[in-house]
Amino acid sequence: MKKYPPTAKELRQWMDKKNLSNKDVAKALHLSDGRVVRFWTQKEEPRQIPYPSWYTLRHKFGK
């Protein structure tokens, strides 16, 4: 993962490697539910994760 923030596919791979669900990520970022995370990881027309959110996840869960 050299691009920051990562693509939807890279984010999903990272979450799978860390055994994180959408709810886990949402809770770590103090979001109300996992819907926002689902938008970041969906295959068709994903939204890009904001850099501050990505930085927070990397800090909490490691590389």
Brief characterization of the structure:
The chain has 63 residues and is mainly alpha-helical. 56% of the residues lie in helices and 0% in strands.
Tell me what you see in this structure:
- InterPro entries: Lambda_DNA-bd_dom_sf (IPR010982).
- With 63 residues, this protein is mainly alpha-helical.
- It has one domain (8-61).
- Helix content is 56%, strand content 0%.
- It is built from four helices and no strands.
- Helix 2 packs across helix 3 (35-41).
- The longest helix has 11 residues, at 51-61.
- It is globular and about 25 Å long.
- The N and C termini lie close together (10 Å).
- The model has no long low-confidence stretch (mean pLDDT 89).
Could you outline the blueprint of secondary structure elements for this entry?
Layout: H1 8-17, H2 22-28, H3 35-41, H4 51-61
Strands, count: 0
- What separation lies between the terminal Cα atoms? 10 Å
Strand content: under 5%
Give me the Rg, rounded.
Answer: 10 Å
- Helical proportion, percent range: 55-70%
Features:
4 helices, mainly alpha, 63 residues, globular
